[in-house]
Amino acid sequence: MNFTETAWKVFNQAIEDYHVSDDVNTLINNPFEKDTLERILYAKNWIDTVQWHLEDIIRDENIDPTEALHLKRTIDTSNQKRTDLVEFIDSWFLKKFENITPKPDAKINTETIAWAVDRLSILALKVYHMSQEAYRESASEEHRAACKAKLDVLLTQHEDLSTSINQLLTDIENGDVKMKVYKQMKMYNDESLNPILYQKGQQK
């Protein structure tokens, strides 16, 4: 089983586990051993799955404004955790390939391994939920047909993205691509970088 096959299997296990209770407040129960890549991937997708459903909830037109504000801040916190975990995955691969010497003409990829994995995790969620709609008995035949067509596109995207990630890993292992990691430098949660937050602090 190659890397993306493993990741896809882990992502879908996390999605299935979440939907046992289908509750954004459910605490993660990671089944994989500490310090394994599978444990990291499971945690990554669990964050994505919870956030997927938070984004659904906050779009309720009848939501109480106070609850919406609370959810928005929860989503912001989730986004930061998601980014931190993606960067941790990149660090994991940086360690894995630390003894690889890139060739003099090695290319630099526009996207790191972990950010591609992030897209794969989100894609797993899209496939799961589009499948639910494509086979929802209470939906119209027209709706199911439209969703099945979209599902076919998503499955093609899964195949292409998996191939691309595996090729990138091979290119790094062969020294054809130089692995270089950049931090996201998100500013909105940082009280020293977000003007709204640090100006508020100065007014006290």
From TrEMBL:
Q: Which domain of life is it from?
A: Bacteria
Give the matching InterPro entries. DUF4254 (IPR025350)
Q: What protein name applies here?
A: DUF4254 domain-containing protein
